Amino acid sequence: MKITKVEALEKTANKIRMGLLQSIYYAKSGHPGGSLSCVDILTVLYFNEMNINPEKPNDSLRDRFILSKGHASAALYATLAERGYFPKEDLITLRNIKSKLQGHPDMNKVPGVDMTTGSLGQGLSVANGMALASKMNKDGYRVYCLIGDGELQEGQIWEAMMTSSKYNLDNLCVIVDCNNLQLTGETSQIKNLNYESIESRFRSFGFNTLVIDGNNIESLVEAFNKAEHTKNLPTAIIARTVKGKGVSFMENQADWHGKQLNDEEYAKAIEELTKKR
Amino acid sequence: MENVKQISTRESFGEALAELEDERIVVLDADLASSTKTNLFREKHPVRFIENGIAEADMIGTAAGLATCGKIPFAATFAAFATGRCYDQIRVSIAYPKLNVKICGTHSGVTVGEDGATHQMIEDISLMRTLPNMTVLSPSDDIQTKQLVKQIAEYKGPVYLRLGRIKTPVIYDEDEKFEIGKSKQFGDGKDATVFATGDVVVEALKAQQLLKEDGIDIRVIDMYSIKPIDREIIIKSAKETKQLLSIEDHNIIGGLGSAIAEVLCDEYPSNLIRLGIKDKFGKSGKPEALLKYYNIDSRAIIEALEG
């Protein structure tokens, strides 16, 4: 069930936002800010771009997705539930001792999760391994890896970037969720990482780069399409996003990196998102 | 033992790896193929050889990704970098998701010799043993290494294979059989049991010979499988012999001696003399001189048992 209409994708993204907030609200812990910023990216990937089938989550020819910024697990779970990998009712069990929905994604517990993540900086190397396997077998599947802008402070990412370009992994698409905020403050202050410096660095490491509005569905669809048609080079989509996107009082607020919602805040957030439908 | 073939376990590993026929096997290197001997595989199967460059963490992650897609990756580098530098990558991207990656650490222990402390990995058994889902093997000779390389390719799950730099004599017959979780016993002397692993098994065998001349009859057990460990033989030896001793080219903390002590503590409390590097870093020198310096040679065993 591929969704092609922009409006329908926007509605889906809105539902995913509500789903993830519900899960974080019930869990009384989690990471709302960085989850909300990447919802549009996940929506386009899972409902438009990727070749996947929720009924066959382990199909060897499926496209792969790695949430390298594993703390945005609530966004991934809400997306997978919306896509039909597991019942939406499960979302409220997030981080519960009996739940499959761990604080950070576990590939052996949750259908649809292609890689276990949580310790930042490791996803791109794994994505390279998947993309290499696809090439070796001539299987043709593509690999998508979502990295946080703050996460680029981890050195392993830069090791991995050299591997992506060395092996001409044009079946690999990296998406950098540039919301310019991390726990301690602004990413551009902490390590001189803004969307411009990130773009030029990816380019100098041998990537095809695209800078887009990462909360704009149309731009995302177009960027993934361009990536797919780029030969011999891996693509990095530098997605400029807003942390906390969709909830007015969370937008661009570093505090909402990892904060729980009280009853009043949750009601207000859901009210805002409901109005947008 | 002077007349038998001498070969390092890293060479045996490289030779065995190149002989494996399963086309799902992929070998990853971090710029040390000529030292880890994975160059032998590279020559035979260049398409299934991945060069990550001097980027061990990236190598481990790449191996994990390949494993999720059905490949059987062998990632090899020096033990110090394979386990120490990449501990978190192994923990999060391999051990926790239980991925089918074989981590092969050559140049373990002080027998690395002249390169000194930075390259003498004496904490790797400890680091790898404490990871849930991880199997830890530490072979002692050519025959054993080759057979275990074949076995771990068939075994599904994360494995750490500890290998050495120096040449050691072949101690097993071609048709000897080894199993993950088992051990090999030499002799059935009742005066003492010496548990050994890796490149110091041969030191234990030397001590066994020398002690015999003094009328002391000991058994030597080659603990090539550190995890899972052969609990049965530990308990049996504790019951049957007067003294228990462990020896390893590894820190005294967390290695073979600790693993044996854990079993004894759980099931048959006994005294255990532990020989190993006494919570110190290594240093440059000739391998044999270092074994003597750190008291992990045949002489040290004899002194400990007779003293």
Describe the secondary-structure layout.
The complex is a heterodimer of chains A (277) and B (307).
Chain A: H1 6-27, H2 32-37, H3 39-49, E1 64-67, H4 73-83, H5 123-137, E2 143-148, H6 155-166, E3 172-178, E4 181-182, E5 185-186, H7 187-191, H8 195-204, E6 208-213, H9 217-228, E7 235-240, H10 263-275
Parallel strand pairs in A: 1-2, 2-3, 3-7, 6-7
Antiparallel strand pairs in A: 4-5
Helix pairs in contact in A: 1-3, 1-4, 1-10, 3-4, 3-9, 5-6
Chain B: E1 6-7, H1 9-19, E2 25-29, H2 33-36, H3 39-44, E3 49-51, H4 56-68, E4 72-78, H5 79-85, H6 87-95, E5 102-106, H7 124-129, E6 135-137, H8 142-154, E7 159-162, E8 168-169, E9 184-186, E10 192-196, H9 201-213, E11 218-222, E12 225-227, H10 231-240, E13 243-251, H11 256-267, E14 273-277, H12 287-293, H13 298-306
Parallel strand pairs in B: 2-3, 2-4, 4-5, 5-7, 6-7, 10-11, 10-13, 13-14
Antiparallel strand pairs in B: 1-8, 6-12, 9-11
Helix pairs in contact in B: 1-8, 4-6, 9-13, 10-11
How would you portray this structure in words?
The complex is a heterodimer of chains A (277) and B (307). Chain A has 10 helices and 7 strands. Chain A is of the alpha/beta class and 277 residues long. Chain A has one domain: Thiamin diphosphate (ThDP)-binding fold, Pyr/PP domains (Rossmann fold), CATH 3.40.50. In chain A, the strands form 2 sheets. Chain A has a 5-stranded parallel β-sheet, with helices on both faces. A two-stranded antiparallel ribbon of chain A has the order 4-5. In chain A, helix 9 (217-228) links the parallel strand 6 and strand 7. The relative contact order of chain A is 0.16. The model of chain A has no long low-confidence stretch (mean pLDDT 97). Chain B has 307 residues and is of the alpha/beta class. Chain B has 13 helices and 14 strands. A 7-stranded mixed β-sheet of chain B has the order 3-2-4-5-7-6-12, sandwiched between helices. Chain B has a 5-stranded mixed β-sheet with strand order 9-11-10-13-14, sandwiched between helices. Chain B starts with 5 loop residues before the first strand and ends with a helix. Chain A binds chain B through residues 60, 64, 106-108, 114-119, 122-134, 136-137, 155-156, 159-160, 162-163, 166, and chain B through 26, 47-48, 50, 52-53, 55, 57-71, 73, 88-89, 91-93, 96-98.
